[in-house]
Amino acid sequence: MEKIQIIWVLSLLLVFLARLPDGLATDNSCSVSTLDARRFFERENELLRQRYHEEYLASYTYNTNVTDDNRQAMIAVYARNAVQNKQLAQKIKSSDYHLSEDADIRRQALHLSKMGASALNTEDYLALQNAISSMQSNYATTNVCSYTNRSDCSLTLEPHIQERLSNSRDPAELAWYWREWYDKAGTSQKDNFAEYVRLTRKAAHLNDHRSYADYWVQFYEDADFERQLDASFKQLLPFYRQIHGYVRYRLRQHYGEDVVPAEGNIPMHLLGNMWAQSWNEVIDLFTPYPEKPFVDVKAEMVQQNYTVQKLFELGDQFFQSLGMRALPPSFWNLSLITRPDDRQVVCHASAWDFYQDSDVRIKMCTEVDMHYFFVVHHELGHIQYYLQYEQQPAVFRGAPNPGFHEAVGDVIALSVMSAKHLKSIGLTDNGRLDEKSRINELFKQALSKIVFLPFGYTMDKYRYAVFRNEIEEPQWNCGFWQMRSEYGGVEPPVSRTDKDFDPPAKYHIDADVEYLRYFAAHIFQFQFHKALCSLAGQYAPNDSRRTLDNCDIFGSKEAGRALSKFLSHGSSRHWKEVLQEFTGETEMDTSALLEYFDPLYQWLKQENSRLGVPLGWGETNKIPTDCCGQFST
Ligand SMILES: *[C@@H]1O[C@H](CO)[C@@H](O)[C@H](O)[C@H]1NC(C)=O
Ligand SMILES: *[C@@H]1O[C@H](CO)[C@@H](O)[C@H](O)[C@H]1NC(C)=O
Ligand SMILES: *[C@@H]1O[C@H](CO)[C@@H](O)[C@H](O)[C@H]1NC(C)=O
Ligand SMILES: *[C@@H]1O[C@H](CO)[C@@H](O)[C@H](O)[C@H]1NC(C)=O
Ligand SMILES: *[C@@H]1O[C@H](CO)[C@@H](O)[C@H](O)[C@H]1NC(C)=O
């Protein structure tokens, strides 16, 4: 015992000595070393900010003008900065900053010593960025051939194909576009994806992670998060099964038994979205109370001469009504908010922080309709986050939990989409819904918010399995559809084999975007919503006039103050601490979401049982029967 203690004291002393600044022994050496550390991190954060600034400029140039020159220029900047990031991480790792008495320094040291892909040698790093950006370029430039004129091969996903998915009710036409897109955006990228998997695995190992999946999961700073993810999914599944059963039943009535099975997977091309991640575009096929029509918000917008600019102005006004930050003039000058016709752009909507002078921008190919009105708010949520944590050091200019960043705009949109708010901005004249209209509205919301969950869950469960080598490369494609079917009960319209490769048909898979953040955001946003609605006096438990689905926080300075405070921490503190300060909770929790939708859940259970609707689904027969093993949820 004695001996061990002496060794311990000695090593403490060594650490202590090592921390003394060069030749300067003072009585107050602890705080001197803390001051020193603060100066070190201040300097490094400024350099890091400059590197981010340079990277995002190069990346924005590429994203708003997809040429090979711009792609190469972007990769060159990334590669140069990766070397600097790696050196910084190594310097910190070999220092004792992580033992600092100052919690803020310890947290900076922890975050800045993560290298990610920068850990790779230059050749591998370049190869990885090349694989990712080649997939992105392919996604951005994929055009497909028209169903009605096969020699016209100039159709883009946004808006042409999406318009057909929303409005065509011809299964053959829908299957045509499905196949065109998956063949061209997906299969051609198999080699790039394989290279991506190989190199990210190498990077993960260099960072002492068992796999790239483990690297992604540690963003959540919670060893238990993956288990919680599975637990949340299980809690949501009974509700999803009711929606799925009801939709399949109604689709079968519309399309007939040759097109839609009574008990199996739903053919995904009928659901109004290329990935069947939301089904609300085709809600007219399965509206609970068809005699209670939805307000046609799009027609109203068109009639009132809404422009794309106006959608952004409304979003800006909402944040300002809460007392939060206005969009700076440079936002309006430098954003790209409609598709230009003189060049190729990455249309997938995104929000940008340039880490300098409040320079924040949005890049998206906006059109005037309800869907884009929602996306505008989603992206403006990112922008507001950027502005709120602007004063943080570069290392903390991010969300402490990736799900938080995706949830901010969605929370605002939950208010904006309420009948109460739509009435206040003159897009409907009915601000109070009767019971039937309320069920219709909740159902429409569920077709995006709930239907998304099995999809979001699959995106990363699938990639975890690939990264961890739990699915062998020859079975990457059938494994993808097997999981999509098992978790979500949907399947491709045509048989797919392992000669096809479909995952890159989704943007985030090409772009190396971790996806659990969206799943988490869909749950967190209802926790945030409940907290903000309480502060705004718009929600009270068991008060039928103040329910979560008819809450509009517009104009509430109390709500705005709480949200600003929550966002302004950036990632400087653990997400459980800032969540607790904001909502009183310390976990991702499905109860607010389930409360929001409870009237619909009760209605669906009754209606499905009244109609004798079967629930659940079996295995898909659109992939070879000898695919991979079972995955457990
Ligand atoms: C797009 O980038 C190319 C360089 O690859 C440049 O020559 C061209 O002028 C750019 N177009 C626009 C509209 O900025
Ligand atoms: C079909 O598309 C081609 C190529 O865009 C065009 O030249 C042709 O006129 C189109 N045919 C019809 C019938 O629209
Ligand atoms: C919309 O524009 C049309 C044509 O410019 C005009 O006649 C009409 O008054 C406008 N409507 C509104 C609500 O501003
Ligand atoms: C926005 O653009 C205008 C006109 O091009 C210019 O005069 C102004 O300085 C710009 N403002 C900002 C903030 O960039
Ligand atoms: C409010 O409703 C919850 C269930 O939703 C119930 O457990 C609770 O007892 C109710 N509280 C009051 C005060 O009625």
UniProtKB/TrEMBL annotation:
GO terms for molecular function: carboxypeptidase activity; metal ion binding; metallopeptidase activity; peptidyl-dipeptidase activity. Binds 1 zinc ion per subunit. The keyword Protein biosynthesis does not apply. Its EC number is 3.4.-.-. Gene3D superfamilies: 1.10.1370.30. Residues 1-25 form the signal peptide. This is Angiotensin-converting enzyme. The gene is Acer.
